[in-house]
Amino acid sequence: MLDWLPWVIVAGFATIFLAAGVHEWRRRRALDAPEDPRDAFTFDTEAPSYEEPPAETDDDGPAEDASAAQDAGTGEAPEDTKGERRP
Questions:
Q1: What does the alpha-carbon distance between residue 69 and residue 83 come to, in Å, rounded to a whole number?
Q2: Which of 63, 60, 83 is nearest to 73 (CA)?
Q3: Is 35 left (phi over 0), alpha (psi -120 to 50) or beta?
Q4: Contact predicate 75/66, CB 8 Å
Q5: Whole-angstrom Cα distance, residue 20 to residue 26?
Q6: N or C: which terminus of the chain has fewer CB atoms within 10 Å of its end residue's CB?
Q7: Tell me: the pLDDT tens digits for 25-83?
Q8: What is the 3-state secondary structure (H, E, C) of 21-81?
């Protein structure tokens, strides 16, 4: 009886989604989106809560605290237990 109802609901959501997409596309085309959206924000380096971000590196490197990594189960096993299976 109401076999058409799900299609009407889906069509309504699809129409809204497409309209929002077209609106966003027109806005970006008119305003030229920034290359890096984070450039739009300013940072107060004098604020007490400001911390300099860590330097980006290409390698992941070892964990800063190996014992904390072992406690979390993510670090290397200690030398005396390497190769042994734990129950």
A1: 18
A2: 63
A3: alpha
A4: yes
A5: 10
A6: C
A7: 998 888 876 677 777 778 777 777 767 777 877 766 655 555 555 555 555 555 655 55
A8: HHHHHHHHHHHCCCCCHHHHCCCCCCCCCCCCCCCCCCCCCCCCCHHHHHHHCCCCCCHHH
Which candidate, 84, 62, 60, 85, places its Cα nearest to that of 75?
Answer: 62
Would you say 78 and 66 are in contact if contact means Cβ atoms under 8 Å apart? no
Rg (CA), the chain: 27
Q: Would you say 34 and 40 are in contact if contact means Cβ atoms under 8 Å apart?
A: yes
- Exposure of 16 in the CB half-sphere (CA atoms within 13 A): 5
The amino acid at 30: A
- Cα(48)–Cα(53) distance, integer angstroms: 14
